[in-house]
Amino acid sequence: MYIQLKDASFAYNTEAIFKQLNLRIEKNHSYVILGKSGIGKSTLLSILKGLRQLSEGTIHYQGTNQDKIEIVFQDLRLFPWQTVKQALEMPLIIEGVASKERRSRITKCVEQFNLTDLATRYPNQLSGGQKQRVAMARGLVTQPDFLLLDEPTSSLDQDTKEHVQDTILQAQRRYRNGLVIVTHDTEEAAYLGETILVVESETLTLIDNPIFHLEKRRDHLAFYEFSLELKQRLKKGDRNEKN
Ligand SMILES: Nc1ncnc2c1ncn2[C@@H]1O[C@H](COP(=O)(O)OP(=O)(O)OP(=O)(O)O)[C@@H](O)[C@H]1O
């Protein structure tokens, strides 16, 4: 099961964002799209979900389709009038899931995302990290094949950020969905991505993460060395562009 881009190009009017991309996103694997601000990371995420049309090339969904791909936008899009439980129930109602099955999936999902005590709260009664967990739980409650997350931790402090990152990986292991995360944070990329897609002007380079399978990798020097390597790579890209 995969999403495949072949010779894919995309432009906003005359501004080329990607040219001739070839990329396959597999299920049960995590990818991070890493790059500096404004380079086209969110655009690539919306292309994968099929929200933006390519100017050239093709996108192919093998064994899946657009409805089985969930995207969590940076602004989360939680409705102020919905409690946590109602937010999780809405996509299930839209999908036509029967009420008994809805209750069982919501109960499991709130437990997994540690939201049980918050189930009757509204968004304005939640912290930033809690809102992020609700948005991810709402994304996963329909059991999609692929979950796409746009900058899931950018507004969080370090401790909350690490907690949300751990929740993301635990959920991915449990649901075995394909995961694509956009970030400009190299430590987040090193922590969350089995494969890192570095976006530079109009191109993409794939890097296999050598430390992804290291247990408790935040305690290892190799993790910080790899993050630094990614950071230097982004800086080098900057210099090349300016020359
Ligand atoms: N709807 C649009 N119409 C025209 N240009 C757009 C549109 N959306 C984004 N852009 C431009 O396309 C480029 C890529 O935007 P995109 O949001 O994909 O970047 P990004 O890497 O996700 O940035 P950030 O990290 O700041 O969110 C930017 O120059 C942006 O101004």
UniProtKB/TrEMBL annotation:
Output the InterPro entries linked to this UniProt entry.
Answer: AAA+_ATPase, ABC_SmlMolc_Importer, ABC_transporter-like_ATP-bd, ABC_transporter-like_CS, P-loop_NTPase
Q: Which UniProt keywords apply?
A: ATP-binding, Nucleotide-binding, Transport
GO molecular-function terms, A-Z:
ATP binding; ATP hydrolysis activity
- In what residue span(s) does the ABC transporter domain sit? 3-226
Against PROSITE patterns, the record matches this protein to: ABC_TRANSPORTER_1, ABC_TRANSPORTER_2
Gene3D superfamilies under this entry? P-loop containing nucleotide triphosphate hydrolases (3.40.50.300)
Task: Cite the PANTHER family for this sequence.
Answer: BICARBONATE TRANSPORT ATP-BINDING PROTEIN CMPC, SPERMIDINE/PUTRESCINE IMPORT ATP-BINDING PROTEIN POTA
Provide the protein name.
ATP-binding cassette domain-containing protein
Q: Which organism is it from?
A: Fundicoccus ignavus
